[in-house]
Design brief:
Layout (H helix, E strand, L loop, with lengths): L45 E7 L6 H17 L3 E2 L2 E9 L4 H13 L5 E4 L3 H14 L3 E3 L16 E3 L4 H6 L2 H8 L2 E8 L1 H16 L3 E9 L7 H10 L3 E5 L2 H13 L7 E5 L6 H6 L7 E4 L8 H14 L5 H19 L5 H8 L13 E2 L5 E2 L3 E8 L2 E9 L2
Parallel strand pairs: 1-3, 1-4, 4-5, 5-6, 7-8, 7-9, 9-10, 10-11
Antiparallel strand pairs: 2-3, 11-14, 12-13, 14-15
Helix pairs in contact: 1-10, 1-11, 2-3, 5-6, 11-12
Length: about 400
């Protein structure tokens, strides 16, 4: 999820591994490889590459994405654009050292028409030139580096997920209005953390908010947050904005509550602070934490309720934002392939520009001029009911 790596999550406290974002899950299986070739505009099968981590610390996240993509196929008789899908799945692994060659193989050897997936932003940035020069569409269903649809945007790269800065920029004005005081900023010291904090700070200060202090903690190495929590208390801040994920998110939120800050200093963050398996591991310590994200299982719409029920039946657990992003990538390809004049990259890119609004469980969204997802971000609050903590939707952030 970040500019160097995506947001990591955790399955359980006992097995905390930085990078495991959600519990492993998989949808009903379609063939992962097949013999039909892409390039048939006459209505034959279309070959699609699914590039997600199936090994390493990001594997649970990749499995959620695969489950979301396959659920869409199952709901549409295994077809996209009215054509049968030959799905070729490749393992992204933990970063560009495995993800880049896997992406290249999908295009050069497997000859797919388009590729969907990519968890790690370093992988996404690492394959950008390859897809641009190969004229093959890449639909990024997670990686959040701002440059993907910013400084290094390409007509062949599209994103159905988010950009790091946008997730937190949406939260800034709401915190400035709600907190009515200064805010301390704290995040993991890597590209995603810096982009998240910059996005929040921009929106927060533009709305009149005052920053009481800022600290970036060693990424992937911080287990004891007490020195940083002491600094927060000494700053006199009325609230805190935090960006953490995975093991660090669990440790930070639990220690924040244990240190006695939760009752006195409101905690806000990007949604990954309390998403999926992380929330399950945090338990009651997360109650009251408010976050911004473009999805929650608690969205009260017919479309989302239908999706949650279908995903729960297919994967055996509630969906996460990662599953939704891949599910929507399938929906985008469905519309684009039905409009495309052929299977060339140029044909599909032209069609992608005309897909319009996507009827998603997250709510309607569409691509902006830079091929990023133009969508609603929600203010979520962790609440506990029937023994289970959920990210209740308490408002829209824009």
């Amino acid at each position: 999820m970040g500019a160097v790596s995506v947001f990591s999550l955790t399955r359980t406290i006992a097995g905390l591994t930085l990078g495991a974002l959600v519990l492993a899950g998989c949808g009903s299986s379609l063939g992962e490889s097949g013999g039909s070739q892409s390039g048939d505009p006459s209505g034959g099968d279309v070959k699609i590459g699914l590039l997600v981590p199936l090994s390493g610390v990001y594997a649970p996240l990749g499995e959620d994405m695969r489950a979301g993509f396959e659920l869409y196929l199952d709901q549409h008789d295994g077809k996209l654009g009215g054509r049968g899908v030959d799905l070729v799945t490749a393992d992204e692994g933990e970063g560009p050292q495995t993800g880049v060659p896997a992406a290249q193989k999908l295009v050069t050897q497997d000859q797919v028409t388009a590729v969907v997936g990519v968890v790690n932003s370093a992988t996404a940035l690492g394959v950008r030139d390859f897809f641009h020069e190969s004229k093959k569409p890449l639909l990024i269903a997670n990686a959040g580096a701002d440059d993907i649809t910013g400084a290094r945007k390409s007509e062949y790269v599209w994103r159905t997920s988010f950009s790091n800065g946008d997730v937190s920029a949406a939260l800034g004005p709401a915190v400035a209005e709600e907190a009515k005081g200064s805010v301390y900023l704290i995040a993991a010291d890597y590209a995603a953390g810096k982009e998240m904090v910059a996005g929040f700070r921009k929106g927060f200060e533009a709305a009149g908010g005052k920053v009481a202090g800022e600290k970036f903690t060693p990424f992937g190495k911080t287990q004891d947050f007490q020195p940083y929590l002491s600094a927060i208390r000494e700053s006199g801040a009325d609230s805190v904005y935090a960006f953490y994920a995975g093991a660090e998110a669990v440790n930070f939120v639990k220690q924040y509550e244990q240190f006695g800050l939760a009752d006195k200093t409101s905690l806000y963050g990007a949604g990954f602070l309390t998403e999926g398996g992380v929330l399950a591991a945090q338990g009651k310590a997360a109650v009251g934490v408010k976050t911004s994200l473009h999805y929650s299982t608690e969205l009260d719409t017919a479309r989302n309720k239908e999706f949650v029920a279908a995903y729960q039946k297919s994967a055996g657990k509630p969906p996460t934002v990662y599953a939704v992003q891949a599910y929507d990538a399938a929906a985008v390809l469905d519309k684009a392939l039905s409009k495309a004049d052929g299977d060339s990259g140029e044909d599909l890119v032209k069609a992608l520009g005309g897909v319009g609004s996507i009827d998603s469980p997250r709510g309607p969204w569409k691509f902006d001029a830079d091929h990023d997802a133009q969508q609603t971000y929600y203010l979520r609050e962790v609440r506990s009911g029937a023994g289970t903590a959920v990210n209740a939707v308490v408002g829209e952030l824009g």
